[in-house]
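FAQ: What does a multi-protein file look like?

Like this. Sequence, then tokens, then the next protein.
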Amino acid sequence: MKKRKLFGVLAAISVVLISWCTYRLWPDDTAYARQVLTQIDLKRYYQISDEMGNNLFFSTISTDTLLNGMAWKVKDIHPIHKHTDGFWINQNWLYPSCRGRIVTAIADTMNLLVSAIKPAQLIVHQLKACQYELNSLKQQQHELRYYLRVHGVQDIGYDIVAKYATKIHMRRDTLEKAIALLQRFNRNGKISIHRADEYTATYKNTKGKTEKKHCSALAKDKHNSILLLETEDRKTPHGINAITIVPWKITKMLDTMAITSRFSSPCPVEFARPGSMIFVPTHMNKGRFAGIKLQNGYHDSEQIKELFHLGK
């Protein structure tokens, strides 16, 4: 009798386990996948500092290693903006384990460029460029002063030239302040560069309203192509789905489709935005999650799994 009860309990447990595993590994339909999708906004700027308390901010570096969007006050910073798709993801296939984690595809080429250049080298190049521009402005100011001195407001085009002269004067004032700051940096050997990133996830709640959550970066892959983010409260929003990576490797990437914010229905992968989810078709208009769309190409689910080990 006891054995019969034991077998009955074991059989019931087995049925529950099989049902649960089947449920967790069941392919996803479009409606479910769209509740997994989110959009990621990145705001980024860089800060150059020295031990004397001098600070200089910029948004990007041009190909000739000059600083774009240069500012010396926080309120004047013009950060770069990047927009891409992303998706909420479970860390373990066996149970809900998202905890506010998102995978997205943001190529980090600019940060690689900044990291490869010595801060002192950036200062020297920028100082030379500003001094060259300042000399050019001084020549323009000399010519504009002569024009304004020999002409009057009754002359055609005088107002336009006067406004342009004011613009040149303001630009010169800005350059002189920038040069003074760069010279202070140049006299100090200990200079460092810090990056400031702000990630925001935008998604639809259960009522269809747009909500936002701030996130921080946990890990990026070795190719600087995909990124693992985590919400500040480490919680997945109520009513939001999370994608699950199956425990086996998907080897056949045939007839793949993507779920992207660009379209309301699945589309060919080449038309999807970076960060979109890639699915392989299964049955009954469902699909199995297989990877993430990049700017060029894709990463499969096995490469995404590596992020979890890096993010621990």
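And here is the next protein:
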Amino acid sequence: MEDYIKTNDYSEKIKNPFNSRFNKYAIDTSIAGNDDIIENLSNLCVNGKKIYITTTTVDELTKLVNNRDTDTAATARKLLKLSTITYPESFQIIDTSEYSGVNNHINQVLGICDSRILQFCYENRDEVMLLTADRAMSLYARSLQINVRCLETRTTFVNKDVLFDRAKTFQLENNPDYPAMHVARQDGGLVIHNPQNYGAGIGIRVVNPSTNREFNYGPIYIYSGYLIMIARIDQRNDIHFSVYRMTSTEGLKGKYELVFSKFYRSFFSYFNVDGNEMYERFLTDFKQKYTRRLARG
């Protein structure tokens, strides 16, 4: 069975902006990062298509609306308006609060919120196409034989090396990512206490490069040569990511050097980390943690 319509007719592409044979679509929050999503969903509505939006997605979009200064937040507001005022008859709300998710593995990797959306799509896979901008979610959907279209997101990368001189000694009060903020001296050693209990807006992971062992839960004792990865999301929903290496355990809280730093415009950006799988894994986990906290409120 063909998933896509083969046509060069522009009017047909307006009726079917995703060039799909489907008349029913499900959406997740990440599409708020796509520049054309409002126009394309409007075209679907005008042409009598049905759009499913889960209670999980509604909750997450509502949270995004509070970040008024971002393009993503503006799109989130338009999506909510589209579903409640402009084309309410085209949208159907699906209550996924009682869904258990696809399976334990996907629940853990993507988080229960995305897993519930996949469960709905899986149960209706013969009729529904999933629209998402989350690459990991798209791949898992394909593995479940769910029809999915992965959309592009607006992305701006700014290397923070232009903002921070690696040779400078960082002043604690001027650099919220400085690892010494999270380090304490205890029993003659340096330790990070309970990073798992930090708020949704910050994530920390420590790595022992000699063994590649990663530490997420405290207390974590750190030693010279250890890497400390820190991700922070600001009020504009942008992500600040830095990696530090401990160069010395001397002093009150040790000494560090910056080894990698990038700034991602928009929470839904693709994480360009120069091919470093460890960095990408950490940022993906951080995103899932943040999304779960938003869903719980």
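Q: Is there any per-entry metadata?
A: Some entries carry free-text notes. For the entry above: The chain is about 30% helix and 25% strand.
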